[in-house]
Amino acid sequence: MRGDARRVVRGFLVAAAVVVAATPLVGQDIADIDYEHLSFRGVGLEFGYVWPNRVEPAPSYTLRFDLGYAGPGLRVAPSISYWSSRLEDADIAEFETRVVDLIAQQNGGGRPLFDLGVIEYTDIVIGVDAHVVWELPFDILTFGGFGFAAHVIDGDGEVISGTFVEDLFDSVDPGFNLHVGTEYPVTDRLRVYGSGRYEVMPDLHYAQIRGGLQFMFGPNAPGEGRDGR
Known about the structure:
Largest sheet: 8 strands, antiparallel, barrel
CATH architecture: Beta Barrel
Strand order of the largest sheet: 1-2-3-4-5-6-7-8
Structural class: alpha+beta
């Protein structure tokens, strides 16, 4: 099931990228936006789902900030995201084996029983995305781009709490993502949107889908609003 989900998300990313590349701009307003449109304009609330390679799939929660445009068609969107799930049993077993091997090497071959129990893996993601935005017919916007993030990782469990094992799981790792999505202005102050992304970290990677609502406090840029406004 996990492999199927990853293929669906990757397929969505590829298909959306193809659509974006093949679709001509309906209007040049967004492509002509300049730097004066870089300002705080809105907040988005997102719910999503992640499929990591070493951790069980889990829901995710994101707060997205819209900072407007830093250049022609280039929107800046910082975000804070959270998800938490159990480390896969196979990964825990592999880690247990490595620890037992190390103990055996330092104690003349004796191999103790070693059980780490359940380990919870939590990822708090603080990042910023750059969206290249296209205007499509019927007020639909399509965006694609990349992002960078700091992943604050916390590993926790009843057995490892307060031990060196817990310290090994706790870290701050860099991350990079590619993403695509679409959004629609329900009103000038409310947008709905969905996106897919693939996040890469030094020791973990995952596919993710998201959907959300964005509440606009600042003005829409030319070409972003209803009826092309």
